[in-house]
Automatic annotation (TrEMBL):
PROSITE patterns linked to this entry: RAB (PS51419), RAS (PS51421), RHO (PS51420)
Cellular localisation: Endomembrane system
Protein name: Rab family GTPase
Keywords for this protein: GTP-binding, Nucleotide-binding
Organism lineage string: Eukaryota, Fungi, Dikarya, Ascomycota, Saccharomycotina
Length: 213
């Protein structure tokens, strides 16, 4: 048995990603696009908490992402802190065509920090990039807010077109403890032009309307 197979057959590391944000911003669609590369235009509100998992093969390692989809409605808000407690990544989503959903991300990030302190990767995602004609939040404004809130990553995505969704999860994977050391040494050689980890054979993904804070 090769050393690679030996590593793969060892204990698989699991990382918990919690998706947060107001109702209707596209948290479920973001997960669905990543999991199945599909988009459903018929909106259905998440009730309580949903859970999905996906195995990712990166270099010679295998990890499992546990994706926790939370409801945006106020009546479910009290359930969410308990799901944040052991999370590795908090993905806070807003709708670029809704200023109200963007203004709410401060509170979501505050809730994350109350539960996790600095022991969590914070990711800010501006979804519905395809609604650019109805945009109420500029990418520059969102990037500045993401930096102010201490986010490690800011991206604009479109779950309808698939824009930047796979790249978003690749960037998240690069920051996970399992890969951080190897990626840091890579970035010392490549400076800012870091190589994106290929998760799903999606070479040539365009890194548009996005930045790593």
């Amino acid at each position: 048995m090769s050393s690679q197979n030996t590593k793969s057959s060892g204990m698989m590391k699991k990382y918990k990603l919690v998706f947060l944000g107001e109702q209707g911003v596209g948290k479920t669609s973001l997960i669905t696009r990543f999991m199945y590369d599909t988009f459903n235009s018929q909106y259905a509100a998440t009730i309580g908490i949903d859970f999905l998992s996906k195995t990712m093969y990166l270099d010679d390692k295998t990890i499992r992402l546990q994706l926790w989809d939370t409801a945006g409605q106020e009546r479910f808000r009290s359930l969410i802190p308990s799901y944040m407690r052991d999370s590795n990544v908090a993905v806070v989503v807003y709708d670029i065509s809704s200023k109200k959903s963007f203004e709410a991300i401060d509170k979501w990030v505050e809730d994350v920090k109350l539960e996790r302190g600095s022991n969590v990767i914070i990711v800010i995602v501006g979804n519905k990039n395809d609604l650019n004609d109805s945009r109420q939040v500029t990418a520059d404004e969102a990037e500045l807010t993401a930096k102010k809130l201490g986010a490690s990553i800011f991206f604009e995505t479109s779950t309808k077109t698939g824009h930047n969704v796979k790249l978003l999860f690749k960037k998240i994977a690069q920051l996970l403890p399992e890969f951080e050391d190897s990626e840091n040494s890579q970035s010392m050689n490549d400076h800012d032009n870091s190589q994106v980890i290929d998760v799903a054979g999606d070479e040539g993904v365009q890194d548009e309307s996005s930045c790593q804070c």
